């Protein structure tokens, strides 16, 4: 293996890991604060990738403007998701919320995947696949060439994770979300309104998830039917890092990103799902309490 190849694998793994970490952390924060497990979380990322592909490749918008359109569209989608699917069940017991949300959002995921595949093939392109390419020169450091597109993705993931950290640490809503994640009943006793918190959390979670889809397809193409798999990837990261743990999500995401690129390089990309499940099995055997730990 040459130094160039090793660098490509390392940068590619960290890049994917940053996206996986963001996907997992937004999923785990919504789960920790509302007890809603959004199985359609990965599908929303695919929808973001589809809209980004439509705007950039077929409409001709520059990527920064497409990101702004994505942000506005999915911020509204986050508000609607909270109002229609989350708010009506928040008053129920946590176990009921969890089971109801799994059933409803799994059905939503399947419906969105089917509609996206059908209407994309009918109105946009016969092959429903989403990918982007930004024509930028590569960065050269000494004799090593680094993809500028991957650096852009890495910068986005770092910025988004940093903003989430500031949001949780410095804002009243962020502190309320942390309180709900740590002790839901205790947070209710001191007067925290879970409905108000969930509105903000779901808006941010869906917004950043959709934008992540637009950046993800700069290096890895997606099709309409990979949403549930991406949700499973996010859940594996959550199991590795713990529910509501930003640092744990980051470490778990980078681990899976490196596993994916190394598996693809040495054995072929079709083996990546199997290796992911093996990683999950090893983590559950070695640290079965990890997935139950909340952010401290």
- How many strand segments? 2
Assembly level: single chain
Major beta sheet summary: 2 strands, antiparallel
Which sequence of SSEs, written as H and E, runs from N to C? Answer: HHHHEEHHHHHHH
How many helical stretches?
A: 11
Give me the Rg, rounded: 19 Å
Percentage of helical residues? over 70%
| Order of strands across the main sheet | 1-2
Portion of residues in beta strands equals under 5%
- Shape summary: globular
Give the termini separation: 41 Å
Rounded average pLDDT: 88
Structure report:
The structure is a single chain. Helix 1 (3-34) runs parallel beside helix 5, helix 2 (41-59) packs antiparallel against helix 3 (63-86) and helix 6 packs across helix 8 (194-216). The chain has a two-stranded antiparallel ribbon. It has helices at 3-34, 41-59, 63-86, 94-123, 148-170, 172-182, 184-189, 194-216, 227-241, 246-266, 272-286, and strands at residues 139-141, 144-146. By secondary structure, the chain is mainly α. The radius of gyration is 19 Å and the shape is globular. It contains 11 helices and 2 strands, in the order H-H-H-H-E-E-H-H-H-H-H-H-H.
């Amino acid at each position: 293996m040459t130094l160039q190849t090793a660098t490509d694998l390392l940068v590619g793994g960290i890049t994917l890991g940053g996206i996986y970490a963001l996907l997992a952390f937004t999923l785990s924060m919504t789960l920790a604060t509302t007890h809603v497990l959004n199985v359609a979380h990965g599908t929303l990322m695919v929808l973001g990738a589809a809209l980004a592909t439509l705007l950039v490749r077929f409409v001709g918008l520059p990527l920064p403007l497409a990101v702004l359109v994505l942000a506005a569209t999915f911020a509204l989608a986050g508000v609607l998701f909270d109002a229609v699917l989350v708010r009506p069940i928040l008053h129920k017991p946590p176990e009921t919320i969890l089971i109801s949300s799994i059933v409803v959002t799994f059905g939503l995921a399947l419906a969105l995947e089917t509609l996206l595949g059908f209407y994309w093939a009918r109105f946009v392109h016969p092959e429903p696949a989403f990918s982007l390419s930004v024509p930028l020169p590569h960065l050269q450091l000494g004799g090593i060439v680094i993809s500028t597109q991957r650096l852009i993705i890495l910068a986005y993931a770092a910025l988004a994770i940093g903003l989430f950290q500031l949001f949780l640490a410095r804002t009243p809503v962020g502190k309320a979300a942390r309180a709900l994640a740590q002790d839901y009943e205790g947070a209710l006793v001191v007067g925290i309104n879970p409905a108000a918190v969930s509105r903000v959390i779901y808006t941010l979670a869906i917004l950043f998830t959709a934008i992540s889809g637009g950046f993800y397809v700069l290096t890895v193409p997606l099709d309409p039917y990979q949403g549930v798999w991406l949700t499973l990837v996010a859940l594996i990261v959550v199991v590795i890092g713990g529910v509501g743990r930003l640092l744990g999500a980051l470490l778990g995401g980078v681990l899976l990103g490196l596993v994916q690129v190394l598996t693809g390089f040495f054995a072929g990309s079709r083996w990546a799902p199997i290796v992911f499940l093996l990683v999950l099995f090893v983590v559950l055997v070695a640290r079965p309490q990890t997935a139950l730990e909340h952010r401290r």
